[in-house]
Design a protein that fits this description.
The chain is mainly alpha-helical. The protein folds into two domains: about 100 residues, Winged helix-like DNA-binding domain superfamily/Winged helix DNA-binding domain (Arc Repressor Mutant, subunit A), CATH 1.10.10; about 40 residues. The protein is about 60% helix and about 5% strand. It has a two-stranded antiparallel sheet. It comes from Duganella callida. InterPro entries: Tscrpt_reg_PadR_N (IPR005149), WH-like_DNA-bd_sf (IPR036388), WH_DNA-bd_sf (IPR036390).
Length: about 180
Amino acid sequence: MPGHHHPHGPHGHHHHHGGPGHGPRGRGPKMFDAGAMRYVVLQLIAEKPRHGYEIIKDLEQRSGGGYSPSPGAIYPLLALLLDMGHVTASADGNKKLHTITPEGEAFLAENRQFVDAILARLADPDEYREDLRNVMHELKLAAIEQARASQHDPQRLEQIRAILRQAAADIQALK
């Protein structure tokens, strides 16, 4: 059919990933953003064909129980990988068995360093604390920098104090 020809194949327009510098920042308790998660799920399927439920359990196990994605995070991702041509799905009883395609393998190979970095993060629970330390350090630097810049402005200093107090109160209010 005219208009349906893609000279670059099914993945010609899916190159908006940014590599290691891009990714999970400031996304709350989620360990990964959806972009990073796509690589992890594809890697698991590359190791062996899997059902969605197996992927959830495997991620839980690899993170030492520290991370358990919801079905609402995994199943739409599997549908996306299917649409991108990175996996195929075959009926296996009442479940779908997902298998990686050559396109999926090529995508993983292109992004191997990023994939390995994400998997290492998953296996290292200290990564959570490390990230927290980095964010706290950024906060401290921002407060010090602003305080220095506003040496003679008591109103500005009070704003900084109020923001820091509010942040502390919000964190303590977490249940």
